[in-house]
Specification:
- It is a single chain.
- This protein has helices spanning 3-15, 28-31, 34-37, 43-51, 60-66, 72-83, 88-93, 121-128, 156-161, 185-191, 196-203, 205-222, 243-259, 261-269, and strands spanning 22-26, 97-104, 109-114, 138-140, 143-147, 167-170, 225-228.
- It is α/β, with parallel strands linked by helices.
- Strands 1, 2, 3, 4 and 5 form a five-stranded mixed sheet that branches. A two-stranded parallel ribbon has the order 6-7.
- α10 (185-191) packs antiparallel against α11.
- The protein is globular.
Length: 270
C-alpha cells in the first residue's frame, strides 16, 4: 500500500504533461504504474478508496476462498472492465515502453516482461504484485510467478542495461532506510515447500535491496538518476482497508511531486 505514494507522484506528472520513453514497475509499481502508460490520473486512488472495504475486493474471506487476499477476478477483471475502466487502447497505442518484474518461483529467476509481448498482460500485472502467503502463484505463459520484488525490487540496473541511462526512480521508503531480514521466511518456507528456491531468495533479499540502494545513491550523485522518495516513513501496512489512510499516503506522494516539479522538468530536459 506504500504504492499509493507512487500513484500520487505519477498523477502529478501526468497532470503536468510529464512523459518518459519507458517505465518499469515492480509489485504495486506494476499494478498501479500501468495507469501512467494509459494516461489515467486519479484512477488508482479512486478505485482503491471506492472498493477497499468491499468484501469482493480483498479480505480474509477472499484469502480463504480463493487463496488470494486481493480477489483476482474482482480486482483484475471486473474493476478494469466494468466499474473503473482501464483504457487499454491508450495503453497499447502509447509509445512508452512498459515493463513489469516477476519472479519465476520454479527456477528462482527474475523475469523482466515487456508489456505488449503477451496476450495475458493483466495476469503479468497481477503476478508482479502477488506477495507470498497473500496470493497463490500466477500461471502465465507456462510459468509460475510471484512478486518481482522477491529478487529485484528496484530494477535500475536492468533498465540501464537495455539503454535507459537517465532515470527517475520512485521509492516508497525515505532516505536512510535499511531493509532487515524477513522474519516470516520460515513460514513461507513451509507454505511454499514445493518451491524451495523462494525461501532461499527471501532469506537474502535484504542484502540485495540494500546494495541496490547504495548503487542508486551513487548514480544520484553522478546526476544520472533523480530519486523521488517520501520525506519520512509512510507507516502504512501491506494491506489497508481504510480509505482515509490511502488518501493520506497518496497526498504525501502528490505533495512530494509538486514540491519537486521544476526539478523533475529540469532533469528531463538536461
Amino acid at each position: 500500500m506504500r504504492g499509493m505514494f507512487t500513484a500520487g507522484v505519477t498523477d502529478v506528472m501526468m497532470e503536468n504533461g510529464i512523459t518518459v520513453d519507458g517505465a518499469i514497475g515492480v509489485s504495486a509499481g506494476a499494478a498501479f504504474g500501468c495507469n501512467y502508460k494509459s494516461n489515467q490520473p486519479g484512477r488508482v486512488i479512486r478505485y482503491n478508496t471506492t472498493f477497499c472495504r468491499d468484501p469482493r475486493y480483498a479480505g480474509l474471506r477472499s484469502l480463504i476462498k480463493t487463496g488470494n487476499f486481493y480477489n483476482a477476478e474482482f480486482c483484475y477483471v471486473e474493476i478494469p472492465t466494468k466499474y473503473d475502466l482501464f483504457d487499454e487502447e491508450t495503453f497499447v497505442n502509447n509509445p512508452m515502453e512498459f515493463y513489469v518484474v516477476c519472479t519465476d518461483i520454479e527456477k528462482g529467476e527474475v523475469i523482466y516482461h515487456r508489456c505488449g509481448d503477451s496476450q495475458n498482460e493483466l495476469e503479468w500485472f497481477r503476478a508482479s504484485a502477488s506477495l507470498p502467503l497473500a496470493a497463490k502463484p500466477v500461471e502465465v505463459d507456462g510459468k509460475k510467478l510471484l512478486d518481482g520484488g522477491i529478487i529485484d525490487s528496484i530494477p535500475l540496473q536492468f533498465f540501464e542495461s537495455i539503454g535507459y541511462n537517465k532515470n527517475i526512480i520512485l521509492l516508497t521508503q525515505p532516505k536512510g532506510f535499511v531493509k532487515e531480514k524477513n522474519k516470516v521466511v520460515p513460514i513461507i518456507k513451509r507454505a511454499l515447500k514445493q518451491y524451495p528456491k523462494i525461501a532461499e531468495l527471501l532469506a537474502v533479499r535484504h542484502i540485495g535491496y540494500n546494495e541496490t540502494i547504495k548503487y542508486i545513491e551513487e548514480r544520484e550523485k553522478s546526476g544520472d538518476v533523480l530519486v523521488i522518495r517520501p520525506p519520512e516513513p509512510l507507516n502504512i501496512k501491506h494491506t489497508c482497508r481504510d480509505p482515509e489512510e490511502l488518501r493520506r499516503v497518496y497526498n504525501i506522494g502528490r505533495k512530494t511531486a509538486e514540491d519537486m516539479l521544476e526539478q523533475i522538468k529540469a532533469f528531463l530536459t538536461e
